[in-house]
Amino acid sequence: MARVALVTGGTRGIGEAISKKLKADGYEVAATYAGNDEKAQAFTDATGIKTYKWNAADYEASKAGIEKVEAELGPIDVVVANAGITRDAPFHKMTPEQWREVVDTNLTGVFNTIHPVWPGMRERKFGRVIVISSINGQKGQFGQVNYAATKAGDLGIVKSLAQEGARFGITANAVCPGYIGTDMVMNVPEKVREAIIGQIPVGRLGEPEEIARCVAFLAADDASFVTGSTISANGGQFVV
Ligand code: CAA
């Protein structure tokens, strides 16, 4: 039977590429989205991948959504916590609201996504937890105190879960994408973006598929001894 994979924020950007790659690799995929019904429908029409709508920042909604996915597709074997947002501003201009929104989605949202799936993985003695962090969680970024804090926190989550999950056949790993050509990066002011591209040794933005392939590796049986680790895929922009 096909393994079941849940990808939050799985209908757009990096998440879309991950959903498609996992489907191509033979997984039964559930992709979540928070708001854009039209885009989600277009995604399902194009890919045949089922979508589910809930806000990753909401624990009860995540729990109920995950129960629905498991009732329809079966127990979740692979969870990819990908949903994330930016609310960039220099710290002196950053509002408590901008701080809260980013923490609620990018950090608490990761807890909300993994926590309801975790007991089943422990019982079944198998699981793959993959969190999409960011280069900016590793190096920090001007204008992203909130985002960098959450993405660094996400690394703490996987390093801890790796230790708790090991006895139960569960691996937990992170992928830290650099700057990838998605809406999120295209929304950065052009001048700033051009300057950032100048800092990437390979001389270009990454492609969502280049991140999806990292996720597929971590999800596969091939990665059985890889846990608590971080794959950095950033074109050489930051060498850990
Ligand atoms: N380093 C040093 N100084 C910088 C700077 C930087 N990287 N960026 C801006 N500044 C300077 C500006 O030149 C300006 O200086 P002056 O006042 O002397 O002119 C000062 O900081 C403040 O600028 P502004 O008051 O104009 O700031 P703003 O309110 O317009 O906000 C910003 C600017 C929103 C932070 C903007 O610089 C920005 O969007 N930066 C990009 C942040 C970024 O990389 N976000 C990543 C999004 S993609 C993503 O997050 C995906 C991922 O995981 C990689």
From TrEMBL:
Q: Which residues form the Ketoreductase domain?
A: 3-178
The UniProt entry, under Gene3D superfamilies, shows:
NAD(P)-binding Rossmann-like Domain (3.40.50.720)
Output one GO BP term.
monocarboxylic acid metabolic process
| One Gene Ontology MF term | acetoacetyl-CoA reductase activity
Q: What is the enzyme's class at the highest EC level?
A: oxidoreductase
Q: Which GO terms describe its cellular component?
A: cytoplasm
PROSITE patterns linked to this entry: ADH_SHORT (PS00061)
Q: Which InterPro entries match?
A: Acetoacetyl-CoA_reductase (IPR011283), KR_dom (IPR057326), NAD(P)-bd_dom_sf (IPR036291), Sc_DH/Rdtase_CS (IPR020904), SDR (IPR050259), SDR_fam (IPR002347)
Please state the Enzyme Commission number of this protein: 1.1.1.36
**Entry keywords, A to Z:** Oxidoreductase
Alphabetical list of NCBIfam families matching this protein: AcAcCoA_reduct (TIGR01829), PRK12824.1 (NF009464), PRK12826.1-2 (NF009466)
Q: Which family does it belong to?
A: Belongs to the short-chain dehydrogenases/reductases (SDR) family.
Q: What is the protein named?
A: Acetoacetyl-CoA reductase
Taxonomic lineage is: Bacteria, Pseudomonadati, Pseudomonadota, Alphaproteobacteria, Rhodobacterales
